Amino acid sequence: MTEQEAYQEHIRYTHDTYCRIVIRHASFDAARMLAARWRREISLEYLTEEKFVPLSTTDEYFQVPDYGETYLFSVRGQTIFLDSCSLAAALAGLPEQTQEEIFLYYFQHLTQKEIGEQSGWTRSTIGRHIQLALKRLKEEMEVLSHE
Questions:
Q1: pTM (2 decimals)?
Q2: What is the DSSP letter of 122?
Q3: How many angstroms separate the CA atoms of 51 and 53, rounded?
Q4: What is the pLDDT along the chain (147 residues), one digit of tens a residue?
């Protein structure tokens, strides 16, 4: 073995030893961190035994709400059933043209351009009408909810 090969082997052994030491210390640090976490954590079983409170949760996200009453809203000869009394009252308070625009946009799912073609307005005008109608609906519903 030449001096060059011996030196390269020495470097390789030194590097391997250094890596082993780093890995060993990292495992000690990880074990120390886990032990500290385990000392701070409290078992859920301990909490339920201590407080005598059963742990449970109820997921109501996918439950169908029981609305009870439905309220009618008629536009263009069609009747829509609404679950909110305040929404039905607020819609009824809007001008007929605005009611039709809301109906076509939200219930018939027409685009603003299609509604504009039917009514003779531009798409941007219809968009502005809908935006103002929603603002009025919100204000009216807030007034109705405070009564």
A1: 0.51
A2: -
A3: 5
A4: 799 999 999 999 999 999 999 999 999 999 999 999 988 887 666 655 555 555 566 767 666 655 567 778 888 888 888 877 788 888 888 888 888 898 888 888 999 999 999 889 999 999 999 999 999 888 888 887 776
